[in-house]
Amino acid sequence: MEYKDYYKTLGVTKSATEKEIKSAYRRLAQQYHPDKNPGNKRAEDKFKDINEAYEVLGDAKKRAKYDQLGASYHQWERAGRPGGGFDWGQWAAGGGNPNVTYRDLNDLFGGAGGFSDFFETLFGGAGGFGGARTQTRPRMQLRGEDIEQPVEITLEEAFHGAERSLRKGERLVTVSIPRGARSGTRVRIRGEGGPGNPPGDLFLIVSVQAHKTYERDGDDLRADLPIEVYTAVLGGEARVPTLTGEVVLTIPPETQSGRTFRLAGRGMPKLKEVNAFGDLYARVVLRLPAQLTDREKELFRELAALRKRSG
């Protein structure tokens, strides 16, 4: 009979904690689950091996007995395998016949198959310990798979918050997307993912559309602010559009093109921070006059001459 290395099957060390063993089992069981590998005999066999390994390593008493056996078996191997073979009889459940096969297993395939001869020899086919034919402990229920679904929103929706309705079977699930969401934000809807016990979660992966006026930089917004050349030279006022309406900005005389004004608190809401906002940065872009009259051109020439003489 072949010795089974359950630690190797789950990919953990012999010093692994209960939590580490459970985590390894969950990961591998999800990977090799028959629902994900229909018709794959190799995956089905691997799935059985994983469950058998967890049946032993996930139970403190079975694990203790298995560790004692392992120490004895490896000692026998290091000694050069003396005698006619390893004495499995002293480890058999209740000292029973190692060829006994039990068929009342409550496995994951509805009884179609069972644990290995190695397991049945040590613990009895129904998971008993020391010969007692007790019912095997309930198998771990697999959590449903998490599902990701992309969703696109406008910058205005990211500012004010939004809702999306998703159909799941015959149900309509309404999901709220919070204010301040940005591209890459994950909105979690518990229990609306893949079936399982418990069900998995549904994650909406937010993508915010590009905007014709604003460029988003984290929680801040950046925008160009076109102003007339006269306002830039003499000073005046400019109206700046924001996502909550226009604000009036005072432009000082001799403002250069490219100068940036910071409007505090006029940016995006900060995700998960109540009444906290980023800033809006308005960059001056000079708007030159077009279709000048002869008189306007003459005045510009006079101005150019004056600047030349004074320079």
State the gist of this model.
The chain is of the alpha+beta class.
Question: Main traits of this protein?
Answer:
four-stranded mixed beta sheet, 311 residues, elongated, 11 strands, alpha+beta, HSP40/DNAj peptide-binding domain, 30% helix, Helix Hairpins
Describe this structure in words.
The protein is an alpha+beta fold. The chain folds into three domains: 6-123, DnaJ domain (Helix Hairpins); 147-208, HSP40/DNAj peptide-binding domain; 215-307, Urease metallochaperone UreE, N-terminal domain (HSP40/DNAj peptide-binding domain), CATH 2.60.260. Helices cover 30% and strands 23% of the residues. The chain has eight helices and eleven strands. A four-stranded mixed sheet has the order 6-7-11-10. Strands 1-5-4 form a three-stranded mixed sheet. Helix 2 (18-32) runs antiparallel to helix 3 (41-57). The model is unreliable at 95-113 and 126-138 (pLDDT under 50).
Tell me the Rg in angstroms: 36 Å
Query: What are the secondary-structure elements, in order, as H or E?
Result: HHHHHEHEEEEEEHEEEEH
Largest sheet: 4 strands, mixed
Number of continuous helical runs? 8
Query: Uncertain regions: pLDDT < 50 for 5+ in a row?
Result: 95-113, 126-138
CATH class of the largest domain: Mainly Alpha
Distance between the amino and carboxyl termini? 102 Å
Secondary-structure map with pairings?
Blueprint: H1 6-10, H2 18-32, H3 41-57, H4 60-78, H5 117-123, E1 147-153, H6 155-160, E2 162-168, E3 171-177, E4 186-189, E5 202-208, E6 215-217, E7 220-228, H7 229-234, E8 236-242, E9 245-251, E10 260-263, E11 280-287, H8 294-310
Parallel strand pairs: 1-5, 7-11
Antiparallel strand pairs: 2-3, 4-5, 6-7, 8-9, 10-11
Helix pairs in contact: 2-3
